[in-house]
Specification:
220 residues, alpha/beta, 9 helices, 4 strands, 10% strand
């Protein structure tokens, strides 16, 4: 699997194999179908460059940027274009960083949008289509440093939503330590432990969903 550039600091090719092995191991004792997914972000960030540009302009004038520029370089009109270009470039560069996007996106919006992304992926990835409604999505959203475990109806009827808190905490800590591979493997095995008592493996069990890790940058 080719790991995209934005994920390489968090995940190695070897860890991808370990994650897929963890899915196989977890599903060897449960009829649950576990699907791990990593997305670059779930939140919209179009507002971030605009906010950064506004802040850059305000800071430039607050520090009397034009005053010391005029003293050092003169008042030629071309310098105004240079100023605008530099401010735009600065805002554009900073807006690429996850920590900046996270800082300038309200936390409440991040929570809502990550949850919405999980629901969309749950349906669009076919997790809803298992025979006994035992699909489980483990979604990791890097920019927001948030995780969601979304289970189908049969599991939700027997496993309270709060049960997944420990799994999500494992993933959040992994993102903060930039070790998503190890954390996701541990989270998958933990899901298997949670599911096995209520949803043990059945004699006629088949692997309905692919064990591969899904990686997405944006919504398909």
């Amino acid at each position: 699997m080719n790991i995209p550039h934005w994920l390489k600091a968090y995940l190695s090719a070897e860890q991808v194999q370990q994650i897929e092995g963890a899915v196989q191991k977890a599903e060897s004792s449960t009829s649950g179908e576990i699907v791990p997914m990593i997305v670059r972000r779930s939140s919209t960030v179009g507002h971030v460059p605009v906010i950064l540009l506004s802040l850059s302009i305000a800071l430039f004038f607050a520090l009397d940027g034009r005053g010391w520029r005029a003293e050092m370089l003169g008042e030629h009109w071309a310098w105004y274009l240079v100023e605008i270009a530099l401010l735009l470039a600065t805002a554009g560069l900073l807006s690429r960083f996850h920590w900046v996007q996270r800082l300038l996106t309200p936390r409440a919006d991040q929570i809502v949008q990550v949850n919405m992304r999980a629901e969309i992926e749950f349906y669009e990835s076919g997790i809803k289509k298992t025979r006994d409604s035992t699909g489980v999505l483990i979604l990791v959203s890097l920019m927001e440093q948030r995780a969601v475990v979304l289970a189908d109806k049969a599991i939700n009827d027997k496993v309270p939503q709060d049960t997944w808190r420990e799994v999500c905490d494992l993933l959040i800590q992994g993102m903060k330590k930039k070790d998503v591979g190890l954390a996701l493997g541990a989270a998958i095995l933990k899901c298997g432990e949670i599911l096995t008592p209520a949803f043990p493996i059945q004699p006629d069990d088949t692997n309905e969903l692919n064990n591969e890790l899904i990686i997405k940058e944006g919504l398909a």
